[in-house]
Each structure stands twice: as structure tokens, then as C-alpha cells.
Design a protein that fits this description.
The complex is a heterodimer of chains A (112) and B (113). With 112 residues, chain A is an all-beta fold. Chain A has strands at residues 4-7, 10-13, 19-25, 31-38, 42-51, 54-57, 64-66, 76-78, 87-94, 102-103, 107-111. The N and C termini of chain A lie far apart (36 Å). Chain B has no helices and eleven strands. The chains are: A mainly beta (112), B mainly beta (113).
């Protein structure tokens, strides 16, 4: 089955620690995206990448970092500089130049 | 600046009723308007979408109504079922924006049996 796999589904970390969320897709999509979802806030774009080895900041990139070394993978690191990291994180992908998005099932990060 | 405004934030409907969710946008360059459905603990999935050259699109019990002059569009769920209980997001995209959607803040729909 083609799709997007996000792991882990739940993640707990201590305050001040960096944490990396995994996103892998086997849809052969060029573009990949990271969103943060908070109650009542909708989906806010963190970073996106439309081609390997290139990525762009979204609306709320501060405190996050990404890499795109392979077409299939787009990991997100939540750094200790992110002031309020507890949230539901969603990865998505699309074919560049088209409107259709496919989302993963998300990772719920809790920082204590 | 919120470019896509969605209302209501939450909605409770009885089984068999009509659920209506509204969105308004500001940027007239938007040219694709999708609705996403999200169940708890899952990612959003595309439900239905419309382009501004048509005023209505229907897929089963789900209908998008589009008013270009008012810059508004809405989702109508006919004969709402408990299985429709989910969060619904409207969005708007444009070619000039790398096709990246701007999302509304979501509507939590509960359909009572």
C-alpha cells in the first residue's frame, strides 16, 4: 500500500531535549510538508520541501529544523528552542505542481 | 492575518439533519478549494474539492457551494450520520503559492444518534 508513515505515534520528551519525528512516503511524491496542529488553531505550516536537498520555512519554523536527503524521507527535529513543543505533528506529501495532498497519521508529541 | 476564516468552531447535529460549515477567503487569486475530514488521532483526508468556475459540486451526501462574488464557500452534509463526526477543515490554494493550501481553523462536528 502506498502512503505516508509517521513514527512514532506518541512521543514523550523532557523539556530541553531535542527530538526527531520521522516521516517516510512511498508515493513517489516530490514535495513533502510538516504541519503542527493545536486545538482551534487549524494546521500551521512548519517547513516544506519540493525537491531533495532543498527546503523552505513555513509560517512557524522557529525552533524546528528539517533535512531532505532522500526523496522518501523528511524528518523534523523539534529543538529545545521551540517554546511550546507539545502538539500533534502531521506530515504530508504531494506531486509538485498539483493541488492534492496526502497526510500521514500524525505524531503526538508531549514535552514534560 | 487569517486568509481563510471558518465557522462555526463546533457544530452539533442530530442524525438525519443537515450540517453546514462555512468558509470565507480574502485572496482572489485562490483557485482551488478543498475540504478535508479528520477523525481523532488520524491525519486529514481529502473529502471534496471545487474550483471557482463552478458554483456547486456534489459527491454523495457532501456538497460544496461556492459564491465567487462573496468569496465564500460552504460544505453541506445531508442526512448527517454519527460516522460523520469528525473535524472538518476548509482550505484554499493557488498556483502562485506553490499550490500550498491555506487552512481554516477547523470545525468539530458531532452527530448525535
Amino acid at each position: 500500500d502506498g502512503g505516508i508513515t509517521q513514527s512514532p505515534k506518541y512521543l514523550f520528551r523532557k523539556e530541553g531535549q531535542n527530538v526527531t519525528l520521522s516521516c517516510e512516503q512511498n508515493l513517489n511524491h516530490d514535495a513533502m510538508y510538516w504541519y503542527r496542529q493545536d486545538p482551534g488553531q487549524g494546521l500551521r505550516l512548519i517547513y516544506y520541501s519540493q525537491i531533495v536537498n532543498d527546503f523552505q520555512k513555513g509560517d512557524i519554523a522557529e525552533g524546528y529544523s528539517v533535512s531532505r536527503e532522500k526523496k522518501e524521507s523528511f524528518p523534523l527535529t523539534v529543538t529545545s528552542a521551540q517554546k511550546n513543543p507539545t502538539a500533534f505533528y502531521l506530515c504530508a506529501s504531494s506531486i509538485s505542481g498539483t493541488y492534492g495532498y496526502t497526510f500521514g497519521s500524525g505524531t503526538r508529541l508531549t514535552v514534560v | 492575518q487569517q486568509q481563510v476564516k471558518q465557522s462555526p468552531q463546533s457544530l452539533i447535529v442530530q442524525k438525519g439533519g443537515i450540517s453546514i460549515i462555512n468558509c470565507a477567503y480574502e485572496n482572489t487569486a485562490f483557485d482551488y478549494f478543498p475540504w478535508y475530514q479528520q477523525f481523532p488521532g488520524k491525519g486529514p483526508a481529502l473529502l471534496i474539492a471545487i474550483r471557482p468556475d463552478v458554483s456547486e459540486k456534489k459527491e454523495g451526501r457532501f456538497t460544496i457551494s461556492f459564491n465567487k462574488s462573496a468569496k465564500q464557500f460552504s460544505l453541506h452534509i445531508m442526512d448527517s450520520q454519527p460516522g460523520d463526526s469528525a473535524t472538518y477543515f476548509c482550505a484554499a490554494s493557488m498556483r502562485g503559492g506553490s499550490y500550498i493550501p491555506t487552512f481554516g481553523r477547523g470545525t468539530s462536528l458531532i452527530v448525535h444518534p
